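[job 0417] fold request received: UDP-N-acetylmuramoylalanine--D-glutamate ligase
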Amino acid sequence: MRLVVLGGGESGVGTAILGKKKGYDVFVSDFGKIKENYKEVLTINGIAWEDEKHTEELILNADVVMKSPGIPEKAPIVKKLIEKGISVISEIEFAIQFTDATTVGITGSNGKTTTTLLTYHLLKQGGLNVGLAGNIGKSFAWQVAENKHDIYVLELSSFQLDGIINYKPHIAILTNISPDHLDRYNYDYSLYINSKFRITKNQTEADYLIYDNEDDAIQNWLNKNTIKANKVPFSLTGKPEKDGGFIENNNINSTIKNEIFTMPINELALEGKHNIKNAMAATAVAQLLNIRKQTIRESLTNFQGVEHRLEKVLKIQGVQYINDSKATNVNSVFYALDSMSTPTVWIVGGVDKGNDYDELMPLVREKVKAIVCLGVDNTKIINAFNNVVDVMVETTSMSEAVQLAQRLAEKGDSVLLSPACASFDLFENYEDRGKQFKQAIYNL
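[job 0417] inference complete; emitting structure tokens
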């Protein structure tokens, strides 16, 4: 069997290693440049590869193709593979056939990284033999090739879910749905929503779907479609009929199979309403996998949080600098601004993914004293907020953005990097953007 892997990044190289181990004839092809460390791994493992091109005669003879999540369906080589009827799948779909581990699959427009890391933390503290993979950490396929975990916690993007045929998580979490990546879905929100719900399409009556019961897109979809999995909703305002998470007397509560877990909200390590929801989702997983209540409590209290997600960097002259570089869409920024309790200088901008800034207007009016635009093209942001804030400046480098923000901020204010956009105009990725932000603060 010939396995062709498109994309020589973490998921591509991991898939190649697993494929080789399982006896496939493997070829890796990347239209961009493969990083030196990955080239070395491929060469050491005797796996043929190419970069900066796609040689069709070496690709179109595949029995199966693993396409990295970053490559769109519209890419010419992918179109040709589909026309030829060659199976194009995701890393998760390829790897799952070689493990009998239980998986917890986590998706959503926002909060999935925090929820994934928090869930992993709860299970690991509970003594389970658990791996962390998907959109985060070491490739799932690579771990299946080299480790034997009993459980994997997988962060799954819509792109990874698009490449699923048979994969089903035993426990799925859908944190929320808001417009994102619409450029990949023909600017049709319903296609993106359907993509997210692929996480439950193969689930059975023995499986569980944990979801935000206050999310309009999730509610509407569930009202129109049937699922086989057991529903475990969570909510800040209502109480579930059966299993699920809710708030009562300033306590977070989670009922699973008549077992109630409860703890005071003010003991949670993470702040903000959205993080109460993330904690409810992770708690439900821990309960379903029989982690002791005391362990869950301790783990929710000592969890460290996620880099580049509302990360408090430094306080300088009474001004708090907050790195929320991971906020690449409007909904993420909504959570960020909602959690701000001081006047805020907001650094925003990048590659717009079809953003509609209307839902941010009330929060911007209430909380934002100045906007620093950081992008190659800031027109849309300027048009949206020009009449809403008094001060608006444009920059094209992180150091300049941070220096300007420092001048605009007074004691007691916050400077928030929460871009609402992708980072590819000025940075390698959101991590690079966040690291440059932190470095610029240390340089002040």
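[job 0417] notes: DSSP finds 17 helices and 20 strands in the chain. The mean pLDDT is 94.
[job 0417] exit 0
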